[in-house]
UniProtKB/TrEMBL annotation:
Protein name: Uridine kinase
Gene3D superfamilies, A to Z: P-loop containing nucleotide triphosphate hydrolases
GO BP: any one term: CTP salvage
Reaction catalysed by this enzyme: cytidine + ATP = CMP + ADP + H(+); uridine + ATP = UMP + ADP + H(+)
Amino acid sequence: MTIPSFVVGIAGGTGAGKTTVARLITENVGESVTRIPIDNYYEDLSHLDLSEREAVNYDHPSAFEWELLREQLSTLLEGRPIEMPVYDFEIHNRKNEPTTVEPTDVIIVEGILALYDEKVNEMLDLRLYVETDADVRILRRIQRDVIDRGRDLEGVIDQYLSTVKPMHDQFIEPTKKHADLIIPEGANSVAVNLLEEKVMAEVHGDAVRDWERPSPETRRDRR
Ligand SMILES: Nc1ncnc2c1ncn2[C@@H]1O[C@H](COP(=O)(O)OP(=O)(O)O)[C@@H](O)[C@H]1O
Ligand SMILES: Nc1ccn([C@@H]2O[C@H](COP(=O)(O)O)[C@@H](O)[C@H]2O)c(=O)n1
């Protein structure tokens, strides 16, 4: 049984480079890492038809099933496997079959609101916020949504202006204050190399953890 020793949260706006950072910092540690994309914890919307699901605001915190994420994360932290839901962006819903996820030394929790929920934050050993300019992010998003997620250009633009951008400003960007580190320009190589070394040290058991998370009060005092 593996009890995870290092849980990293990676938040940031759409297209900021969260998935890329997660991939790069873990690419040399093989199977010792588990990635938990919080997209998989979008609420089950099977009770809605496709056109209703298309109209949902997927950037609002209420779109996520936080209780399930908390529960499954703490199960992994106890060294037990979970049945993680799997999300399908083309149908705006979970797939029928979940996937079994075993606990590993390092766990990466990644998504636009990965630093939003207080209870999830408490389970994170390291909180990262990936920050990339909005113009770069929207260009990346258009490309990705049209090519990989089966969307049309007009729909991507409408969604960006009506929900993605306002929710980013209201809910996602403010979670930056919970971050231990802010990574500018997404996958910048200096930050990626440092974090990769840290992840490898955790996996090989020679990591030195000499920090203690400051309480919210101490953080405020430091400003
Ligand atoms: N530093 C970077 N330079 C160039 N392209 C990048 C960089 N980081 C990410 N990308 C590209 O931008 C797109 C979105 O990145 P991704 O990591 O999926 O973002 P997120 O997970 O934050 O939505 C992907 O096509 C990825 O290859
Ligand atoms: N059915 C859905 C669900 C989510 N989205 C968008 O995905 C974005 C989050 O994923 P990133 O990889 O970009 O971080 C989020 O901004 C949602 O708008 C969607 O379009 N459709």
